[in-house]
Design brief:
It contains 12 helices and 6 strands. The protein has helices at 39-52, 64-73, 80-93, 103-111, 126-142, 150-157, 165-176, 186-194, 204-222, 226-239, 241-259, 264-276; strands spanning 2-8, 11-17, 23-25, 28-29, 114-116, 119-121. α1 (39-52) packs across α10 (226-239), α2 packs antiparallel against α7 and α11 runs antiparallel to α12. β1 and β2 (11-17) form a beta hairpin. The chain has a two-stranded antiparallel ribbon. The chain has a two-stranded antiparallel sheet with strand order 3-4. The protein is mainly α.
C-alpha cells in the first residue's frame, strides 16, 4: 500500500491506495500518488476534494434551458471565460425565459461586445450559435426531455442542430450529475493518452463512445465517480499547460526511440500525440 495524507486544520487523514506497481486496469499501474497524471494521483485528488468539501461545482445554469445555453455557447474554440460571459449576457437579456426569442434577437445579443477580464471582446461564431441556440430553446419549450439517465438526456439532445456528443454529454453531466457519460475534449484526451488508459489509435471524432466507455471503466477501477474525475481532470489539465506539454514532449522522445524499433504501436501513438500539440 501507499499512503497519501490530507490535512484539515490540525487533523491529518490518510488515504490508502494500492502499491505503485499494482495495476488499476490491465496494463496500467497505479503509479505514485505524488506523480502528476498517474491513476493514484487522480484518485488521491478526488478523495482529497471530497474530504475537504472542495468538490468542483460544474453546473452552470439554474434551468435546463440555461444549462443547454451555457454549454452551447462554450467549447469548440471559445475560451471558457468568453463562453460564460456570453451566457450571462444572454441570460440577463431574457434569452432563457418561457417564450424563446427569435434567431434574429439572439444574434443581435451575441453581436454585442462582452466584458471579459476588464476588456471588451466580440463573441466568435455569433450567427452559427444563434441558429443552434434558437433551435434548442424552441425544442425545450415544446417537448419534455427524458431525465432518467445521462445517456437518455444526451441522446435526446443529439437531435438538435449543432449539438454533438461532447456538448450533449456536457449538458447531461452538469444537469443530472450523471456518471454514465463523459465530456471528452482535448484536455481529457491528453490525460487519457499520457496516463495510458485510452487506446492510442482512437479519436474523439470517430470513436467518442468507445473512449467514453474506457473513461468510465477507468473511473470505476479508481473507485471514483466519472463526473468528479472528468471535472477534476479538465481543470488540472487546463490549468497546467506548460507541465502537460513538457510531459508530452518527453512522450514524443520515447516514441521516437521506439520508432527506431519500428513497432506499429509506437507509430500510432506518435501520430496521436502530434495531433494533440
Amino acid at each position: 500500500m501507499q499512503l497519501g495524507a490530507i490535512f484539515m486544520g490540525q487533523a491529518v487523514f490518510n488515504v490508502e491506495l494500492p502499491k505503485p506497481e499494482d495495476e488499476v486496469i490491465p496494463g496500467v499501474p497505479w503509479g505514485s500518488i505524488e506523480k502528476f497524471l498517474t491513476p493514484a494521483y487522480w484518485a488521491y485528488q478526488v478523495y482529497a476534494r471530497r474530504l475537504t468539501g472542495d468538490r468542483i461545482n460544474y453546473k452552470l445554469g439554474s434551468t435546463l434551458k440555461e444549462e443547454v445555453g451555457a454549454c452551447l455557447l462554450g467549447g469548440h474554440g471559445i475560451p471558457a471565460n468568453v463562453g460564460i460571459a456570453a451566457f450571462n449576457h444572454l441570460r440577463n437579456s431574457g434569452a432563457f425565459e418561457v417564450k424563446p426569442p427569435s434567431e434574429e434577437k439572439l444574434l443581435e445579443w451575441l453581436k454585442e461586445p462582452l466584458e471579459v477580464d476588464g476588456r471588451q471582446v466580440r463573441y466568435r461564431f455569433a450567427k452559427q450559435k444563434a441558429r443552434y441556440l434558437c433551435a434548442a430553446l424552441r425544442r425545450l419549450s415544446e417537448e419534455q426531455p427524458p431525465l432518467d439517465t445521462g445517456k437518455s438526456l444526451r441522446n435526446w439532445l443529439l437531435d438538435i442542430p449543432g449539438i454533438g456528443y461532447k456538448t450533449a454529454s456536457w449538458v447531461a453531466r452538469n444537469w443530472l450529475d450523471a456518471d454514465d457519460v463523459a465530456i471528452l475534449d482535448i484536455h481529457i484526451l491528453r490525460a487519457g493518452l499520457l496516463g495510458n488508459f485510452f487506446d492510442s489509435h482512437l479519436t474523439v471524432d470517430r470513436h467518442y463512445l468507445k473512449l467514453e466507455e474506457q473513461f468510465i471503466r477507468f473511473s470505476i477501477a479508481l473507485g471514483v465517480r466519472a463526473s468528479e474525475l472528468d471535472a477534476l481532470m479538465w481543470m488540472e489539465m487546463m490549468s497546467s499547460p506548460a507541465t502537460v506539454h513538457s510531459i508530452m514532449g518527453m512522450g514524443r522522445q520515447t516514441i521516437a526511440s521506439s520508432q527506431r524499433r519500428r513497432t506499429k504501436k509506437s507509430e500510432t501513438y506518435s501520430g496521436q500525440l502530434s495531433l494533440l500539440c
